[in-house]
């Protein structure tokens, strides 16, 4: 599962950088590359969101590791 954690974390970091670009420069890199709300960009946004939701479980696993 560690590879999935690392992959999810990498995808979420890339998504965070995209949101940083949107917030500072009003530039959406995903929309620029794949089209504004095209089916491919929607899939990418969905994957980033699902990875973010999955990483919520990381909080519980980190807490369990520190309790041991």
From TrEMBL:
The keyword Iron-sulfur does not apply. It comes from the Bacteria. This is DUF378 domain-containing protein. Keywords: Membrane, Transmembrane, Transmembrane helix. The chain crosses the membrane at residues 7-27, 39-59. InterPro entries: DUF378. It holds the Pfam family DUF378. The keyword Membrane applies.
């Amino acid at each position: 599962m560690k590879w999935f954690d690392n992959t999810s974390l990498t995808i979420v970091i890339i998504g965070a950088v995209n949101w940083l670009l949107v917030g500072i420069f009003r530039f959406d890199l995903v929309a620029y590359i794949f089209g504004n709300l095209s089916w491919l960009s929607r899939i990418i946004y969905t994957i980033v969101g699902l990875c973010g939701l999955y990483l919520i479980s990381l909080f519980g696993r980190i807490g369990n590791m520190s309790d041991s």
